[in-house]
């Protein structure tokens, strides 16, 4: 028994190491699996049918249990430990051979005795190699997986509890031929409006945050879905820089200064407004060819862009679009207010 | 059919440690004889104590015959030499019957009746003469005129062949190639080895100065000891995987293989690997032992497709790719 002591202690150490590694691996996998489950549940909740919170919480818990509990319960066998020593700790197949020889007991005694002696002499070195293996768990990977899972759970928590009904009621219902009101077809813009509001909220637009749908529903206004949608839309319009143009309006005609205009042409349902300034020439506001010819007599070199900039009145007169309405409800920046006033004075 | 058996030599009981020391001493003695061919010497010793035969291929003057002489001298085994030529007859190898003193035919054993046979330039012998070696190498017996005679134990054949001057040669058939445990190539020595050669062998052949460090009984004892090496299930599976990896496939390096290694190659692989384990002072096999002998065991047991030859691949390069992939899966 004394001769088996080094081998058994080594196998015990290896077993503990393998269990620790299995638990770490299971924890990582559980974190990512929870994230996947929550995303799936969220998608089902938003697009098909509302999922009760208890079920939504039970599914990730069940997933984590299925992954972590076996790692906790399973005990690596002696053969698995011996194989690990053979592969990773310089065992040179001795440990698995010895275990098989002991189990089979059909080999020559001299070979087995020599092998036992060899194994006992190598146990110390193998234990040292085991000690040199990284013992610290991969905290960063585990923390990342756990953080992602917690974040996904938190995102699910801010989702409207009965979003499919809300989405269905945000658009006017069409009158069916039989006289019943058929469920209105959901547009992508309206369907994703609460979602975009919810997902934008933690993004950092603290000053322009839309009211949380869950908060709104908690105060009992979830039946007034159209009003909520309007609130979300107004919040979205507030979150845009002032320019007054709706996504479908002609921004060039709206009179943004050439070169400083911000491209606002985006699909509100699927894209966030780009903040990248796009140099743009005021094509519609520049003078026509007759004006250009008259201006050409004033300079030997002519840059239509600089000339257009030099004559804002001509540009404004040439603008075909209607001036933006002065929406008193909207909060405009000082520069935008000046801009609106300038439009008013020109058109009057 | 009459059976005539020689008096068997009783094997000496040799321990694992004694076997390892003997193998080390033998390698050291041969390395002093053939300078700069350490890997070749190691493989030859491995093959002989695995009970196999060796085919050495190399250019003239690289020390093949010198190695064979030194091996026979170090092992203390009576050796014979067969210089193969196109007019060599099978009876020149196995023996013939002559009229004795009493007027009766009596069998005169050929050079194959020896513990250590050096067959020089074996590819110059005719297929008929080459086939005379087949039964001797595989069955370790010779049948002549209806009488089967056992060859002495131990019995080793070390054959050489030149890869040049192929005019008038008869390449060994695959069946006979498969009977060699190892096929080894003699590399050209390095500059350092060439310089050392001048100090070792300039006016005399060092093989003639070698003293025997063992005898036939000891050699048999070491062979028996190597056979008692323990083999784990992991190593057996690894060896089988390697043999199966050499079978023709539709992708990977094996796509160039026309015929893969035979089951006899699997046996040869394990037998040779056991000797490597004893050389390392172990009584158990490791997968690294298998990997160390895989190339010399398999290189003459696979046949490449024509596409492989067009691609510029050789048996060695294909097998190296296979062995590398096999090791990564262990």
Structural account:
The complex is a heterodimer of chains A (348) and B (330). Chain A has 348 residues and is mainly α. Helices cover 60% and strands 1% of the residues of chain A. Chain A contains 15 helices and two strands. In chain A, strands 1-2 form a two-stranded antiparallel ribbon. In chain A, a hairpin with a 5-residue loop joins strand 1 and strand 2 (181-182). The N and C termini of chain A lie far apart (107 Å). The model of chain A is unreliable at 171-229 and 231-257 (pLDDT under 50). In chain B, the strands form four sheets. In chain B, strands 3-6-9-2-10 form a five-stranded parallel beta sheet. A three-stranded mixed beta sheet of chain B has the order 1-8-7. Chain B has 13 helices and twelve strands. Chain B is an alpha/beta fold and 330 residues long. In chain B, strand 4 and strand 5 form a beta hairpin. The chains are: A mainly alpha (348), B alpha/beta (330).
Brief sketch in words of this structure:
The complex is a heterodimer of chains A (348) and B (330). Chain A has 348 residues and is mainly alpha-helical.
Low-confidence stretches of chain B: none
C-alpha Rg of chain B (nearest Å): 20 Å
Q: Assign the structural class of chain B, choosing from mainly alpha, mainly beta, alpha/beta, alpha+beta, or little secondary structure.
A: alpha/beta
Intertermini distance of chain B: 49 Å
Approximate strand percentage of chain A: under 5%
Largest sheet of chain A: 2 strands, antiparallel
Give the strand line-up of the largest sheet of chain B.
3-6-9-2-10
Distance between the termini of chain A: 107 Å
Greatest interface and its residue counts?
A-B, 19 and 19 residues
Decide which structural class fits the backbone of chain A: mainly alpha
Query: Secondary-structure element sequence of chain A?
Result: HHHHHHHEEHHHHHHHH
Strand order of the largest sheet of chain A: 1-2
Q: What amount of the residues of chain B lies in strands?
A: 15-25%
- As a percent range, the share of helical residues of chain B equals 40-55%
């Amino acid at each position: 028994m004394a001769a088996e002591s080094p081998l058994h202690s080594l196998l015990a150490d290896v077993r503990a190491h393998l269990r620790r590694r299995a638990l770490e691996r299971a924890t990582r996998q559980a974190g990512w699996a929870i994230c996947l489950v929550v995303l799936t549940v969220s998608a089902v909740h938003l697009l098909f049918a509302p999922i009760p919170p208890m079920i939504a919480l039970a599914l990730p818990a069940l997933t984590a249990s299925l992954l972590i509990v076996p790692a906790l319960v399973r005990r690596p066998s002696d053969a698995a430990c011996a194989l690990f020593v053979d592969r990773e700790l310089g065992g040179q197949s001795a440990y698995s051979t010895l275990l098989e020889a002991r189990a089979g007991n059909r080999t020559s005694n001299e070979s087995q005795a020599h092998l036992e002696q060899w194994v006992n002499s190598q146990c110390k070195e193998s234990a040292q190699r085991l000690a040199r293996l990284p013992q610290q768990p991969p905290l960063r990977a585990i923390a990342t997986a756990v953080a992602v899972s917690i974040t996904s759970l938190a995102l699910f928590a801010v989702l409207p509890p009965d979003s499919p009904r809300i989405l269905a009621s945000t658009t006017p219902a069409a009158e069916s031929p039989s006289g019943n009101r058929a469920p209105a077809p959901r547009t992508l813009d309206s369907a994703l409006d609460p979602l975009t509001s919810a997902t934008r909220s933690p993004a950092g637009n603290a000053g322009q945050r839309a009211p949380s749908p869950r908060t709104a529903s908690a105060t009992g206004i979830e039946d007034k879905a159209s009003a909520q949608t309007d609130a979300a839309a107004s919040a979205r319009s507030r979150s845009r820089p002032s320019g007054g143009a709706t996504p479908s309006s002609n921004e060039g005609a709206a009179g943004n200064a050439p070169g400083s205009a911000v491209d606002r042409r985006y699909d509100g349902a699927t894209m966030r407004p780009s903040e990248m300034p796009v140099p743009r020439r005021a094509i519609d506001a520049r003078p026509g060819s007759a004006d250009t010819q008259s201006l050409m007599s004033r300079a030997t070199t002519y840059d239509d862009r600089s000339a257009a900039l030099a004559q804002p009145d001509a540009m404004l007169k040439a603008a075909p679009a209607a001036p933006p309405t002065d929406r008193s409800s909207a909060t405009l920046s000082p520069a935008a207010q000046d801009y609106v006033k300038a439009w008013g004075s020109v058109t009057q | 059919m009459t059976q005539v058996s020689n008096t068997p030599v009783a094997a000496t009981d040799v321990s694992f440690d004694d076997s390892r020391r003997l193998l080390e001493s033998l390698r050291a003695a041969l390395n002093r004889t053939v300078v700069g061919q350490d890997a070749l010497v190691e493989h030859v010793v491995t093959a002989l104590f695995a009970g196999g035969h060796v085919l050495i291929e190399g250019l003239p003057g690289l020390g093949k015959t010198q190695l064979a002489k030194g091996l026979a001298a170090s092992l203390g085994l009576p050796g014979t030499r067969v210089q193969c030529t196109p007019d060599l007859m099978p009876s020149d190898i196995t023996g013939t019957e002559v009229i004795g003193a009493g007027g009766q035919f009596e069998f005169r054993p050929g050079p194959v009746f020896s513990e250590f046979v050096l067959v020089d330039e074996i590819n110059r012998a005719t297929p008929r003469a080459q086939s005379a070696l087949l039964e001797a190498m595989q069955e370790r017996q010779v049948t002549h005129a209806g009488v089967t005679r056992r060859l002495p134990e131990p019995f080793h054949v070390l054959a050489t062949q030149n890869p040049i001057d192929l005019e008038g040669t008869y390449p060994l058939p695959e069946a006979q190639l498969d009977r060699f445990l190892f096929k080894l190539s003699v590399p050209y020595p390095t500059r350092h080895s060439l310089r050392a050669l001048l100090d070792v062998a300039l006016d005399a052949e060092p093989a003639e100065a070698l003293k025997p460090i063992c005898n036939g009984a000891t050699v048999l004892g070491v062979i028996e000891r190597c056979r008692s090496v323990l083999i784990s299930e992991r190593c057996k599976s690894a060896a089988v995987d390697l043999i199966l990896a050499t079978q023709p496939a539709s992708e990977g390096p094996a796509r160039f293989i026309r015929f893969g290694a035979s089951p006899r190659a699997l046996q040869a692989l394990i037998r040779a690997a056991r000797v490597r384990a004893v050389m390392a002072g172990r009584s158990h096999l490791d997968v690294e032992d298998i990997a160390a002998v895989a190339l010399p065991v398999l290189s003459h047991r696979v046949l490449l497709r024509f596409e492989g030859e067009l691609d510029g691949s050789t048996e060695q390069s294909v097998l190296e790719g296979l062995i590398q992939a096999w090791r990564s899966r262990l």
